[in-house]
Amino acid sequence: MATAAITYRIKPGFEEEIAEIFSGFKRAGSPIIRDESGTEIGRITATSLFIKDDRMVRFIQFEGTLEDVGRHMARQDGVQEAERKLAPYLAEPRDTATVEGFLTYFRNSSMRCLSQLSVDSLPPEILAQL
Residue 59's beta-bridge partner residues? Predict the structure, then answer.
């Protein structure tokens, strides 16, 4: 399972307004990611959203590729609604109204992963000791 971090530059001082946007966030209809033929190609297993000062970061745990995650999220009504509401608070405007625009932003705002460790990645002999 992989984890990605997507960063957003926001206008400082609007943390509560942004928190309000996400308090009523409409989740995706399904965590399952499918290709054009309907075949399951991945799954979003968890998301988290953090905010401080002029930075917001979304963490996404997933199976599959980040490109497929972005394509799946771009098509979700709740994501599009949140994007529209978030637009006035962004320090840098972006086009996420289309799948291609969303994917471009997704690629450009993905943070480089320096390390990713999980219990699942521990050797069996270490897991047995836990």
Answer: 5, 48
Listed in sequence order, the residues at least 6 apart from 69 whose beta carbon sits closer than 8 Å to its beta carbon are: 4, 33, 42, 44, 60, 62
Q: How far apart are CA 13 and CA 16, in angstroms?
A: 8
Residues 15-30 have pLDDT tens digits of 999 999 999 777 777 8
Helix (H, G, I), strand (E, B) or coil at 26: coil
In angstroms, the CA 33 to CA 62 distance is 10
Q: Could you give the CA distance from residue 25 to residue 16 in angstroms, rounded to a whole number?
A: 14
Task: Give the span between the Cα atoms of 121 and 23, in whole angstroms.
Answer: 33
Do residues 1 and 120 touch, judged by C-beta distance below 8 A? yes
Residue 57, SS3?
strand
3-class SS of residue 43: strand
Q: What is the pTM of this model?
A: 0.83
Q: Which amino acid is at 130?
A: L
- The pLDDT of residue 62 is 95
